Amino acid sequence: MSHTVNAVVVTEKNAPAAIEQIIIPDPAPGEVVVDVLTCGVCQTDQHFQQGEVGDNFPYLLGHEATGRVSQIGEGVTSVAVGDKVILNWRAVCGDCRACRKGEPKYCFDTHNASQKMTLTDGTELEAALGIGAFAEKTLVAAGQCTVIDDVPDSANAAVGLLGCGIMAGIGAVLNTAAVQRGESVAVIGVGGVGTAAVAGAKLAGATTIIAVDIDDRKLEQAQELGATDTINSQQTNPVEAIRERTGGFGADVVIDAVGRPETYKQAFYARDLAGRVVLVGVPDPSLTIELPLIDVFGRGGALKSSWYGDCLPSRDFPMLVDLCQQGRLDLEAFVTERTTLDRVQEAFDTMNRGDVLRTVVELTA
């Protein structure tokens, strides 16, 4: 039978995120129902609220989540009732041209649930990133569930952040840039994703890790998670400062975790010859950039974009959970604030003020 649960819905562009009752249908073949335990407050959810992702309102927000599987549909063998999972938005299909080439991290046909969750009047909801986890329960494709060890409940909030922002930052370093031991890494913009990139650089064995931002509070947090140097780009030219800290050459890898033309140009010119630039900050679709083509040629190296940290959830989530349990990755440090489902709009406001790395909504399932 279907379930009626509380969830955070935005009904029209720029409307407040508010609690509504929604209907979760029984899972169809290939689908599962998950009792949500935690869900991080990510800026992507606010982009949905503001109509910057699309106009398929109403949206069911939330996507950075842990949960416990409570129902499975016909044919589901990858998860079982009772499994603790991290939800992901890359449920690889196994059959598109990327998957057939052995590059499932670029899967072009990722799976979501075929059924729609609805408001109580039958209005269909569009789930943020195909997940919709600001809810007591949610319906997803089985492939969107990555089973993890049954970590203590106190760790749910931290490991759930791997579902989006933390994975994006760490993956940009480990997977996209493939940072090697002894290399230098600069990260421009150290919010949640950028600070995760700093932590990833530490995991990779980078010896010089430079955090760049305009907020001294964020720079301090980045230093706590592994940055060896910090630069306030309102006070000094970041390109010159990065070069000064890398023997005058520039960093081997520069991560742009902001996604603006200004920061991308800084990243481009702050890298060493044959260095790598990785764009992981999601740009506004209206933005453009202009670079001298001779500089693109003459500086060599690689200009890359990182999609979801180029991750494979089935491979990367359990690995990072293990590193957290070993004490090598402090995911708990990213959880600045814990809150409840009815305070998501307040959490957006706190995020916009730059007061947190991540706020996490905690539910009881």
From TrEMBL:
E.C. no: 1.1.1.306
Signal peptide location: none
Cofactor: Zn(2+)
Domain Enoyl reductase (ER) as annotated: residue spans: 17-361
Pfam families with a match to the protein in the record: ADH_N (PF08240), ADH_zinc_N (PF00107)
Keyword terms of this UniProt record: Metal-binding, Oxidoreductase, Zinc
Matching Gene3D superfamilies: Medium-chain alcohol dehydrogenases, catalytic domain, NAD(P)-binding Rossmann-like Domain
GO molecular function, one term: mycothiol-dependent formaldehyde dehydrogenase activity
Origin: domain of life: Bacteria
Family, per entry: Belongs to the zinc-containing alcohol dehydrogenase family.
Official protein name in the record: S-(Hydroxymethyl)mycothiol dehydrogenase
Annotated organism of origin: Nesterenkonia natronophila
Upper taxonomic lineage: Bacteria, Bacillati, Actinomycetota, Actinomycetes, Micrococcales
